[in-house]
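Project channel, design review

CF: Before we commit to the Streptomyces oryzae constructs, I'd like one complete example in the thread so the newer folks can see what an input/output pair looks like. Taking AAA family ATPase.
RD: sounds good, go ahead.
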Amino acid sequence: MALLEREAELAAVERGVDQLCDSGRPGACPTDAVVPSRDFGVPATDSGTPAAGFGAPVTDAGPPRTRTGGLLAFTGPAGIGKTTLLRETAARVAARSGTVLYACGGEQEQEVGFHVVRRLLRPLLPALDERELRAELGSWYDLAAPAAGLPAPGGAVVPHPHGVRAALDRLFAHLAVRHAPLAVLVDDVHWADPASLGWLAGFASLAPRLPLLCVLGYDPRELRPDAAGFRAAVDGPARLPFPLAELSTEAVGELVGEFFAEAEAEAGPGSDAHAAADEADAAFTEECRKLTGGNPRAMTELLHRAHEAGLKPHRDSRARLAELGPAAPAADVLHRLENLGPDCVRLCWAVAVLGADATLPFAARVAGLRGEAARSAADRLRGARILEGEPGGADAPVRFTHPSLAGEVYRAIPASIRTALHGQTAAALAADRSTRGSAVRHLLEVHPDGDPALVGELRRAAHAYTAAGAPDAAYRCLGRALREPPAPGDRPAVLYELAAAAFRSDAPAAAVHPLRAALAEPACEGEPRVRAVRLLVRALGRTGHPGEALRTLESEVRRARAPAERDALRAELSLWRALHSVDGGGAGDEDPSLPALRAWHALRRGEPAATVLRHAEEAVAGLSWTDDPWGCEVPALVARTFVHCGHLERAEELLREGIAACERAGLHSDRYLGLARALLPERPGEPGKRAVPR
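CF: and here is what came back for AAA family ATPase:
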């Protein structure tokens, strides 16, 4: 049936597909295409220069083309037509020999870090060559690979989530060229895992400047509280989403007539198809709209039930129509599911628990059904419009006909049975590593039982999530491991890892309590204790408690017995006093080098640019290029800080002041003047004129 009252949305889809597919030759890349950077640092090579390709023209051997991308967003409640519009977009791109990457946020997969990103890339993984990607992406490959599910060596450095998101941008920009024309479709974004949602928030604003089409569907009312960045990116003044409205009475009447005409036509010759369409009178139409609120999905289900009950679309059927059952899709699905028999219920529950990893053999295994019984149940569920998938396709995914059905069925499973199904699924995945999917999200749902193996599995998963740049997913795994609980000897390590994950998730307040608990454990001694103290001090400082941080350090210095531990804590105490000025000195008698050190330290830690610049400006007031003992080193450090923050003119101004100060002091050949001039190279195309490098 046609998409009714979606003319504006379909026109926008057609324009986007036209811009993507009808301009330029496939595979060519514009010589002036730029991969836009996000507002954070740029990975560098070992020499300290920016990694090749970021924020620079992407060139290709082929001639230029004018392929342009775009961003579309469709919003509204479940059943309003978002999924249908995304599938229509996919069909139009595929019809023009385009590549479609599709993923759907899952209510049960929100605990899996980068689930949506990996679902998008899964169809292309077999065709991606690691050597080619490394040659194209450079140092970005190692950042993107763990999040994307690509082969990646274990790195000693924990990546910052911002860097991982920027690397994923580079990866998708590369795929947009190599697999052009490319469409990236994400349905039910409101159920996307936090790591993928964080990436989408930036990618949505970059997509219009990349040669790909990005189409999103989501319910604004269901977006996570921490999705403000995504809202800002999609709801910008130049990218207003399309809010999908309920069908009008006229559209409902057209849908009713069309549905019954098709149903009667399928019944064979001699049917009264045209009469059925004509009999869709206003009273019947108005009753349908009243029962469904004009929701297309609810309308379709109601009409199916009416036809199965033998009703005709005229006023005499109104009373029976209201008695057919609840018009709410969730209640309707559960009612139909109960009438299909226990095998169908068990298989449907298994598919709901498995989510995106469901195949018929695997779902049958979790449900405890034999082959023939599972196939028969699957056929009945397909006939009842609950499941869809290829009949007889052993490895083909089995999914619900509408994404929201998965959540509706999942929530209807009795809690004890749901927990048992998660346990069976985790055991099946652990026993058969060839099965696609991760056991971690299922382990999060089983009852705590003091199992050391489960604690170890959750900690390994947390380490993998941390390496992929998804510390929030690591935090959930470690929180569950703590409830298992771990063995007494492992408890301090689990608490420390939990706090570290919170700190990396920009939630330092959530790190304080686990670290205090770790320090209270008898087994927390030696190097693990020093690490915990250091992180606790940083968490207290980030939450506005520098005095408490100082007292904690002083107490730990007094407590330490081992020389190495005591020396490490004393060094930390000295650094803390220097950087935070909590040793009693007032602002007037503070060493002028301290604000400069604070600015550089904040920059290296990834603090917000506003914080770094505030410290840098504080440092400028008391700086001198010629005074001992520091001389030029401290102002040069401040100038580099301005450069890294993108304030190039401010850095140039500071360096020129330094050169003038050195010349006034007669230091025409001194190292001070040489350093200032070295940081002020010539402007391109203007010999003899100096400027900060861009």
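RD: helpful, thanks. The two ends are 56 Å apart (CA to CA).
CF: The longest strand covers residues 212-218.
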